Amino acid sequence: MGERNLNIEPKITLLGAGPGDPDLLTLKGVKALQAADVVLYDALTNEALLTHAPAEAIKVYVGKRSGEHSYAQDAINKLMVDYALNYGHVVRLKGGDPFVFGRGYEELDYADSYNIPVSVIPGISSSIGVPGLQQIPVTHRGLSESFWVITGTISNGQVSDDIYQAAKSNATVIILMGLKKLAEIVEIFKAEGKQQLPAAVVQNGSSDNEKLVVGKVESILEITKKEKIEAPALLIFGEVVSLHPSFKTLIAPYASIS
């Protein structure tokens, strides 16, 4: 085993898998997987992507869902380095983009402490890609000059303070990992007088089982419950949601209820 290690050149690739649809992986990402000795993949990555890796490559599911972040991340860091030192090229396959709430820099930093070279291949972030696939632009002349991408829940379990600031603006607000906090988030927007602001929730964006609901701040919580929307889901608040092709027809049935 020791002699084998002498011939190994450890390296790590942080690879963004995109929002869910395996066809949205970049060509550079495909090439990285084809050259992998080990693939460490997350809960939110499509396992169909593993077919790009060599049959003999080691594929390790490392889970990483909310609620166990600190323990899981520490374990993943160590696994990543151990596999690189013993097998060579480790592709760390992460949902979306590695640096958009993916904790990619923590992995890069840990690998650097072992002098293991790391390359980064960006992925399509769900924060932009999922609205786009629904024909909801995150910016649009006359409606939105900017957009916020915010995590719904920070490490202490509270709603991010940035949501309070974003709700004051005219920007499009995209919230990841915020479904459990939707009731609180709605109240934040209501406090800014934005009951009529268009809103959307997208479950499993870009996947075969994608589900979309559209409404307004005052109705989106009720609609989301009625349609049994579940995590993972992305929240979109902003006038740009009114551009969705079926916005008017989607909110019409609920207008008489609210």
Biggest sheet, strands in spatial order?
A: 3-2-4-1-5
Number of strand segments: 10
Q: Distance N terminus to C terminus?
A: 68 Å
Instruction: Report the order of strands and helices.
Output: HEHEEHEHEHEHEHEEHEH
Approximate strand percentage: 15-25%
Kindly state the percentage of residues in helix. 25-40%
Average predicted confidence as pLDDT = 91
Number of helices: 9
Shape: elongated
Q: Main β-sheet, in a few words? A: 5 strands, parallel
From the alpha-carbon coordinates, what is the Rg to the nearest angstrom?
20 Å
Unreliable residue runs: none
Q: What features would you describe in this structure?
A:
The chain has nine helices and ten strands. 32% of the residues lie in helices and 20% in strands. The model has no long low-confidence stretch (mean pLDDT 91). It starts with a helix and ends with a helix. The chain is elongated and about 65 Å long. Strands 3-2-4-1-5 form a five-stranded parallel β-sheet, with helices on both faces. The chain has helices at 2-6, 27-34, 69-87, 104-112, 126-133, 161-168, 182-191, 220-226, 247-255, and strands at residues 11-16, 38-41, 58-61, 89-94, 118-121, 147-151, 172-176, 198-203, 211-216, 233-237. Strand 6 (147-151), helix 6 and strand 7 (172-176) form a beta-alpha-beta unit. 42% of the residues are buried. The chain is an alpha/beta fold.
